[in-house]
Amino acid sequence: MISAPRPRHRSSEHTTSSRPPVHSPPGQSGKTRLVSLLRHDLPASLVVLLTAVPLSLGIAAASGAPLMAGLIAAVVGGVVAGSLSGSPLQISGAATGLTVIVAGLVHQYGFAATAGITIAAGLLQLLLGLSKVGRAALSLSPAVVHGLLAGIGVVIAISQLHVVLGGQPQTSVLANLRDLPAQIGAHHDAAFAVGLVAIAVLLLWPRLPKVRLVPAALVAVTAATAVAWLFDLQLPRVNLPDAPLAAFTLPALPAGSASGIVLSVLLVAAVASVESLLSAVAVDRLHTGPRADLDRELVAQGVANMASGALGGLPIAGGIVRSSTNVAAGARSRASTILHGLWVAAFVLVLAGLLERIPLAALAAVLVVSGVQLVRLTHMRELWRHREFPIYAITFAGVVFLDLVQGVTLGILLALALALYRLTHATIRVSEPAEGDSRWSVTVRGSLVFLGVARLTSELRRVPERAEVLLNLHVDYLDHAAYEAIHGWCRTHERLGGTVTVNEDRDTWYHRARDSRPEQRRSLPGPLLRWFAPWSVWQHRDGEDPAVSAIPLPRDESMALDDSLLLGMHEFERSCAPLARPFFAELAANGQSPRQLFVTCADSRVVPNLITTSGPGDLFTLRNIGNLVPRHDEGPADASVGAAVEYAVDVLKVASIVVCGHSDCGAMKAGLSGGVRSGSRLAEWLRHIQPSLIRFHAVDEDTDLAVHDRLSVANVVQQLDNLLTFPLVREAVQDGRLNLVGMFFDIAGPRMYLVDQQSGRLTPITSGATT
């Protein structure tokens, strides 16, 4: 019984899939949010606190600013930027990338004026965010981002390793590397022991079962602090101002040239924005939660910088060190960011004594491990496979040995250069005449612009004078310089006695330029490929295609071949045969070994290799009017079909026989109407449809299928039964060596269906059904 609806064209169909929301559902209960906050965000905020405090103090000290300025930046970065941030897991605070710049501003204008410059820079950031320019950071190459992360990780690890070893980090990576051997070989004091304890806990804690909910960094700092307290070790610890509230500095207007002040504002705004946006993009690659809204992030950074400057704090930017620590500690929402800012304020004001018990070596150990973890071999291997490793390497080297901005700039410039090379690099192949042919072949693929003219000219010079040349242009863009080079060479070659035929497949770039109708944009994917579409689509019988009309055709009337067929064969030999030659050579040497016998109708609209996406050697095909397989016991009158079946099963050892009917079949229509001239060979052949007609009339099916299509499906089932009358087929099926499969091809769809051998039901191939 046939129960499937009538197959129709499915161009308007689409499949929708539901994906789990990335954010928590809006209706999430308050209890669930509270549990998530207590389990994930609260511990993470404490870990970030332990990272942010020494980092903020260190940046303030290196900038020549009051130590409280760094802590104010941490509080404002956590509470203000965290509340408004477009990157919820990003931690903002004193900008690492601005340390040198701020130091220069403090030296030139004083810190109060620097705070005023910070306010102006924040206002500029706010305007940029409202102008929607932040999203441009999404265009950044992943290789640049991963190189940035790895470079920052190495910078942090090398500098903080000095602290773990009981020394002091230098101001540059080169200086730290220079002094590292001596630092390693020196006498190591209590700081080294505390640092080792912290590193051991950081490495071992995640491996312990059922305890990974507690952040390793928090456990490591706690353990290191406990060791230092128990053994009363004398070593450097966190040092806070004695009177925090008295350390505020009110902003002031800078005194100096207007141009210098404007340049300072632009510089602070630019570096802080770049550092924040790059950090946000990098943080997105560290977690699977919500993606960053970069425009909103830029607005948040602007508001936070205005607030920080007004309170006497350092310029603020999103920091990958604090942010990666936040993600690694298990933060799930912006609550961790905001809480960390509140903790900084609370500990500085209320529990400064407790913070001052923490050894700096323990904090440095956390930074060493975090920095090393930012260098990931998996990223390197992936970028190497995609040929993006040079971008990663130059960004990494620039960040390590220069600075963050210069390293990223170098990476972006190299990424742009490689992209330009790949987009404009054309493949040019010059082939000597094949045996039996007198023409040279020059094939150009890709985008042909002025950057490739020199190589194109060099390749064209390989063609000897007075040679007959076929120039195949498979290009999606041809600029004026490339056109002039090709056109000039063609004219020169023809003037010296040669001939040139220019053939274009994808678009007529050359011919339009020659006719003073040049195109300005790259070609989009063009019409159907020539070996896919009917001749009428690409041969342009109206003569408008100069590439086709330029093909010389033999005019021997005895051949009696249509021009379309000749053009098709020419196209095969020109473009398809060179590509397929290795496959055909292997088939010629090894013989055929198809896995299927494909029985289908002779209808010209049914193309077996097309609808099965197969190639030479895949299908052993049997085609006739109505895809009929007369029964074995009907005698030798139909020996041709029987011979093909037996050869496929007995000699080729095929694994399956497919009988494929189709919609709008003329044989089925003739079988229903009987409108075939009596006594003709066609009438004699169509008598084999009678068993299918009997099967068709025996089933009263209510379906949307047209009557002749219902007969076509019934005919497929009948031919499968007929195949079982062949002893070789029946024996192979019983032994499990052969499967019989029924199919139906809806031409209008186009769509393929499986036909159930017992019920005749249609099942779309796209449903995932199998035989």
Automatic annotation (TrEMBL):
Which residues does the record give as Zn(2+) binding sites?
601, 603, 662, 665
Q: Where is the signal peptide?
A: none
Q: Which cofactor does it need?
A: Zn(2+)
> PROSITE patterns from the xrefs?
PROK_CO2_ANHYDRASE_1 (PS00704), PROK_CO2_ANHYDRASE_2 (PS00705)
- Co-factor binding details: Binds 1 zinc ion per subunit.
Enumerate the InterPro entries for this protein.
Answer: Carbonic_anhydrase, Carbonic_anhydrase_CS, Carbonic_anhydrase_sf, SLC26A/SulP_dom, SLC26A/SulP_fam
Q: Where is the composition biased (Basic residues)?
A: 1-11
Q: Where is this region: Disordered?
A: 1-30
Q: Name one Pfam family in it.
A: Sulfate_transp
Q: Which reaction does it catalyse?
A: hydrogencarbonate + H(+) = CO2 + H2O
Instruction: List cellular component terms (GO).
Output: membrane
Residues crossing the lipid bilayer are 42-62, 69-89, 109-131, 143-165, 185-206, 213-231, 338-355, 361-379, 391-421
Localization per Swiss-Prot or TrEMBL: Membrane
GO molecular function, a single term = zinc ion binding
What is the recorded function of this protein according to its Swiss-Prot or TrEMBL entry? Catalyzes the reversible hydration of carbon dioxide to form bicarbonate.
Q: What is this protein called?
A: carbonic anhydrase
Organism per entry: Crossiella cryophila
Tell me the classification of the organism that encodes this protein: Bacteria, Bacillati, Actinomycetota, Actinomycetes, Pseudonocardiales
